[in-house]
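Tokenise the fold.
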Amino acid sequence: MPRTTRQTAVPPPARRIVVVLVAATLALSGCAGDSSTSSTAMAASQAGGQSAPAVSALTPDPIEWEECGEGLDCATVEVPLEYSDPDGEQIPLAVTRHRATDPDRRIGSLFINPGGPGVPATETVAAIDPDSAASLVSPDVVERFDVVGMDPRGVGESGAVRCLTDEQRADQAVEDRDPTVPGGKRFGRLLADARTFTDGCLDHQSPEFLASLSTDNVVRDLDQVRAALGEDQITFYGASYGTVVGAMYATLFPERVRQMVIDAPVDTSLWLNDPLRLLDEVAVSNEETLDAWFERCRAEGADVCPFGDGDPEAALDVLIAELEAEPLDVPPTEGVTPGGTLDGAMALESVRLAAGHRSLWPLLTAGLTAAQQGDGTPLHFLLAQATVAPFGAPFATLQEPHTAVRCADWPALDKLSEHHAAAKRITARDDRLGSRAAYSALNCALWPVENEDRFTGELTGAGAPPILVVGGRLDNVSPYHWARAMTERLEGAVLLTREGVAHTSYRTSGPCIDDAVDAALIDGVLPAAGTVCDVPPATTRPPAAPAGAGE
């Protein structure tokens, strides 16, 4: 057994809530024209003979930056739609960098992928504030690196996938769901919705574009951006789904990796080969974090956690039933929520979201207590920020690219019997949050295109430097055993464990995690195997009312 080194973190300032929900919900450098002949050959042997399309003949033009904000530059890079036809159709990719604040000590470019799939990396980079404790990366990292974000094809400013009209999106946002029914609606309605969605994808995008959105193409795109920057190697930080991107890059282009950190890893074997099991395990993790909130609420007592007066489970069940029978009207609040109604299904989605991150537990207590008293505004606000897709894709804007990427990556899911069986397994557990998870891959069952050359090889990162894997003991999206599996699969990887509840750890869990990640990125120094970072116990105590409130 490895020696365990335990350190204690102090609580960091809370991130702006949208950043917590999306990003934490939430590769590339070399001489232009010197891409990847050797790494492609290596990838072929690691994939059991499956060869990734070669890109060695590509020589991207040097990137041309334009200043687009304080310390920021923006650019567009053209890449092939299909790398098997490098001289064929080209597509534009949006790239943003935050320049190193200490250029004399600059190490190189740090590429980040905040996850999703579907979260725009350019927006994440544009939000970096070197003076803010809520920034995605630390001031030390911003000093030493140009932080670069590329919106993957089909995401953000790189041709974001669109499948629904504005009216259809609005209808879906307010449609009635039933938490007692798998998937929230009768299966016939779910199937009709999936048909509307997938038909709309073809109405807005070409089949060739939809088929090209796989992660293996994304990492080839990243390597083209690296070459356009004229860098030999990259440093990379990926969170959540971004860990699939990182592991894929380290496998296809190991000699291009300077250092890499992956945070809240996805089990890449499940992602590429057994997505219905993957989604089932996400549902289990959702429930485990809610159970952790229940346990903490009971332990702190009714004086601290007033919801349920010592029995929060029973109180939640009663509240959800009452809200389903008689939803609460939520008036609009300028700058907070557009208003609407709060029913039981909507309240459960807010609970799922807030239970998954310890910094939101006080808001969960406050929201549930307010709803008991007839005020649905706090839970409705949480719902407005909610991520309904498993890997950080807010339903209002990112569900479409999220779905398109995973359907391009995943094996065919066109047998409805498999979806019925998966939904039956989830609902048989009788979990409070299981309804939402059932049939969550149904769009892929009707996906209108096939990705005939998707990469299915094992992602081992052989030949890359040792990778730091950061896993949380309780993570509502990426269960801890996924972090262990990723560490075992990646050759030479080291696992850093975070205690407590959260999705992703860097910049949300205190200096023990932050210092270890910074040391890996900047100096290539990894912590001792078995290192565990404690975080202070989370509280369920509702936040204090602002001074003057209610006057």
The chain has two domains: 6-160+210-266+455-534, 162-204+272-390+413-449.
